[in-house]
């Protein structure tokens, strides 16, 4: 743990908020269409209907807001999952939750021709819930019960299954392939403010749930028996934690597609700064996740300009070495 006192943690958190705000401002200003800080400022204070002003207010502003929200959601979901499962590799991507949400959306598009944003949101929640329950059930089978290794293997298996089913649907339906291919790679390019508004109530509810659960998660991480001995209703805590993860991961996937590694990398970075207190880990994860995805999205615009790389590719480049390090470190201890 790098920071010892509450004042140090608060000051750094405030600094990270400022970095996130700066990254969002940079996301609004920089891109293929050449704009600058003066043009961006006038787009909000003296809008004149020019192409630059329309791009800033209608394209880049929603994109910056979505990047921050999706990054925060995935990072918080990963932090909760790692705490409850005691698994350093736990995240919506590794446990197949993102893949499950993505499969349900693709199935609805290719089979039932669904196009409603609200429908996408609920389908993502349903897919995330189905994947989470399946992984938990499979990981609990056997005499040893639930273990980090079994959970990881079950999650990897379900992620592979849902991904294969998704690819099968897209092979059969080429029209659906055109609609969702870039989204499946994890992208926030072209996302509208309506997509954010559709999931905002559910993600906000999940943030509130996480705030109430943080001290209870601290107790639960001490062990099931200890938590029960202190009077905690562990089953209720786990149910609400699962609801929060489903809302966070499902909401993120419905907007941006299945973006990997944010939920793995960020909680470990948060714990490096503030230790194992989830009253600090969760807000740190939210802000750091927003920074990571916003900065990754800016970088994705410049790698092969004038084309764009999906932001999921950028997070994979960052997260893969970290994943390998954590996998070796975590399983060497198991």
UniProtKB/TrEMBL annotation:
<feature type="transmembrane region" description="Helical">
    <location>
        <begin position="90"/>
        <end position="112"/>
    </location>
</feature>
<keyword id="KW-0813">Transport</keyword>
<feature type="transmembrane region" description="Helical">
    <location>
        <begin position="193"/>
        <end position="214"/>
    </location>
</feature>
<keyword id="KW-1133">Transmembrane helix</keyword>
<keyword id="KW-0812">Transmembrane</keyword>
<feature type="transmembrane region" description="Helical">
    <location>
        <begin position="119"/>
        <end position="139"/>
    </location>
</feature>
<dbReference type="InterPro" id="IPR000522">
    <property type="entry name" value="ABC_transptr_permease_BtuC"/>
</dbReference>
<feature type="transmembrane region" description="Helical">
    <location>
        <begin position="239"/>
        <end position="269"/>
    </location>
</feature>
<protein>
    <submittedName>
        <fullName>Iron ABC transporter permease</fullName>
    </submittedName>
</protein>
<feature type="transmembrane region" description="Helical">
    <location>
        <begin position="151"/>
        <end position="172"/>
    </location>
</feature>
<dbReference type="Pfam" id="PF01032">
    <property type="entry name" value="FecCD"/>
</dbReference>
<feature type="transmembrane region" description="Helical">
    <location>
        <begin position="281"/>
        <end position="303"/>
    </location>
</feature>
<comment type="similarity">
    <text>Belongs to the binding-protein-dependent transport system permease family. FecCD subfamily.</text>
</comment>
<keyword id="KW-0472">Membrane</keyword>
<feature type="transmembrane region" description="Helical">
    <location>
        <begin position="309"/>
        <end position="327"/>
    </location>
</feature>
<keyword id="KW-1003">Cell membrane</keyword>
<feature type="transmembrane region" description="Helical">
    <location>
        <begin position="64"/>
        <end position="84"/>
    </location>
</feature>
<dbReference type="InterPro" id="IPR037294">
    <property type="entry name" value="ABC_BtuC-like"/>
</dbReference>
<feature type="transmembrane region" description="Helical">
    <location>
        <begin position="12"/>
        <end position="33"/>
    </location>
</feature>
């Amino acid at each position: 743990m790098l920071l010892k006192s509450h004042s140090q943690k608060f000051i750094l958190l405030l600094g990270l908020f400022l970095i996130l705000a700066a990254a969002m401002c940079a996301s609004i200003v920089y891109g293929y269409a050449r704009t600058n800080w003066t043009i961006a400022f006038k787009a909000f204070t003296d809008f004149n209907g020019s192409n630059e002003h329309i791009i800033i207010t209608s394209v880049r502003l929603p994109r910056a807001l979505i990047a921050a929200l999706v990054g925060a959601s995935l990072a918080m979901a990963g932090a909760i999952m790692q705490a409850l499962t005691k698994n350093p590799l736990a995240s919506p991507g590794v446990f197949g939750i993102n893949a499950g949400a993505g499969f349900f959306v693709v199935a609805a598009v290719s089979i039932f021709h669904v196009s409603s944003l609200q429908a996408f949101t609920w389908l993502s929640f349903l897919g995330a819930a189905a994947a989470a329950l399946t992984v938990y059930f499979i990981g609990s089978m056997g005499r040893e019960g639930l273990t980090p290794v079994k959970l990881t293997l079950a999650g990897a298996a379900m992620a592979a299954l849902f991904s294969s089913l998704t690819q099968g649907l897209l092979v059969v339906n080429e029209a659906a392939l055109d609609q969702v291919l870039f989204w499946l790679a994890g992208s926030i390019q072209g996302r509208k403010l309506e997509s954010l508004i559709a999931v905002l109530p559910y993600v906000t509810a999940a943030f509130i749930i996480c705030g109430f659960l943080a001290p209870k998660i601290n107790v639960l991480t001490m062990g099931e028996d200890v938590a029960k001995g202190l009077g905690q209703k562990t089953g209720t805590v786990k149910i609400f934690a699962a609801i929060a993860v489903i809302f966070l991961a499902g909401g993120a996937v419905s907007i941006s597609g299945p973006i990997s590694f944010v939920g793995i990398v960020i909680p470990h970075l948060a714990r490096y700064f503030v230790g194992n207190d989830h009253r600090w880990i969760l807000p740190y994860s939210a802000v750091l996740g927003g920074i990571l995805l916003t900065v990754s999205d800016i970088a994705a615009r410049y790698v092969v300009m004038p084309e764009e790389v999906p932001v999921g590719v950028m997070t994979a480049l960052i997260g893969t070495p970290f994943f390998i390090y954590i996998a070796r470190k975590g399983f060497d201890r198991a």
